[in-house]
Amino acid sequence: YVLLLLRSHGEYWIDGNHYLLNPGHAIIIAPGTHYRYCNPLGKYADDWIHFQFDDNETMPAGILCNTPFILDDLETCAILISQLLWEKAYTSPRYICSNINSLFSVLFNHLAAAFSSQENIEKTSPYLSRFKRLRLQIQSTISDEHSIKKHADELCISMSHFQHLYSEFFGISFQNDLIRMRINSAAILLQTTMLPIDQIAEACGYSSNVHFFRQFKQLKGTTPSKYRQAKHLPEDQK
Known about the structure:
It is built from nine helices and seven strands. A four-stranded antiparallel beta sheet has the order 6-1-4-7, with helices on one face. Strands 3-2-5 form a three-stranded antiparallel beta sheet, with no helix packed on it. A hairpin with a 2-residue loop joins strand 2 and strand 3. It has helices at 74-90, 93-124, 128-140, 148-154, 159-170, 174-192, 197-203, 209-220, 224-232, and strands at 2-6, 10-14, 17-21, 25-29, 35-38, 46-50, 69-70. By secondary structure, the chain is of the alpha+beta class. Helix 6 crosses helix 8.
């Protein structure tokens, strides 16, 4: 297993599922799980530890693997991880097993409490399912106009409440998520079609090519034309 405590924003692909997370989340990745991650907004940072259970032990009740959850006491858990690593490296063999088992017990109690707390939030939130449907709708109508005011009005909530809930549910602000969706859609069109770049920009919701070029370079690190060229080069020329 690997336990990750996020200190930066993170975009995760875990066992076929996609997550965008704010700092302060935790994830326990189960053995054999295919996963990858990055920070779409800049440098990635986390605290982590690998661990395994004996044959007669299992993951403590109340914690699901491969499912991110909010961790209010991240610093406490980070300290426990640091202490576990110290014990493993420097403690007398006479006490190492006892100390490590005790520290793991405390760490998993914190994780289980945090996981349970998030489950309760999701069960009691009247907006979670509506926001999930909205997000899918935006992804399928990316060329349309999408604004905080428009969608807040549709949900009959204030703009500030809409922004707070969107960030809480998806780990990214509405505006940054919309930009990410549009640029990713543009990248797919650049790879799979020979449409002119200005048509791709329009199809992804941009009325200004300058705006499109600037945001594309910010997220992909290169211009749309260079991105297309690189994706169509033979492997030995990349």
